[in-house]
Amino acid sequence: MTELLSLLGWNNSGGRRASLTRKIVALGIDTGHFRRASRSKYTSEHLSGAVAASTSINGVLDHLGIPRSGGAHSHISRRIKALGLDISHFSHVPGRWSSSHQQFDRGTLEKAADGARSMREILRRLGMPESRSAREEIRRQLHAFGLPEPSGFQRIKLSEAEVRSAAEASHSVVSMMRLLNLPVGETNRRRLLRCITRHGIDTSHFDRTLTSSVLSRSPRDPRAVLVERPPGTGRTPGRVLRRALSDIAVPVACAK
Prior knowledge:
Layout: H1 2-8, H2 14-27, H3 44-52, H4 57-64, H5 70-83, H6 106-113, H7 119-126, H8 132-144, H9 160-168, H10 173-179, H11 186-199, H12 222-225, H13 238-247
Helix pairs in contact: 3-4, 4-5, 6-7, 10-11
């Protein structure tokens, strides 16, 4: 499939592969001569041979003809770990952190994080470059010492009861933000509007009628989301699946 994509001049991505697979099936084209059958699972023998011939997870992906992507990288890493394959010869072992950034003690990190409103501010106080790798390294060090991240980088979780209570006691979305101790801004405004739409919260007592485009988006029916997808189609994003499960009050946990 990888070679076919290359000959057609297409990018080797999951979407392109799925589209091409559907086209091949629709046209009834024989792919029995392909080295690997389309949409097949990788056996332990395939993975063992790929691991032995590679020095990294990316090398395993290349050996198996899989596009290098975060999802594929994570999936193959989990399969290798589950099978207990030896990866001691890899140049970088998954899960083992390697960093060239400076390591700070707890006191220095506490002082830098005290009163900081963003990760950028912490990096400046520590004299580190404002890069993604430096950001992730400092986040890792904070977690290692059990120190909280700046509030601006923490995921805000709002329950239906909180939003409904704030809406009943407010006359605008801005007053809802203040009541919920949220920074007043466009991001939190859209977050609250999505909650209002999802839970069908009454805002008829507001001073102004809400007319945002966010409100006009009808929520997807969970019954249309939680279905088995046809062979060859792309996978449903995890956030969509989790939201659909939440809408029908099903916990995100294995039933068995």
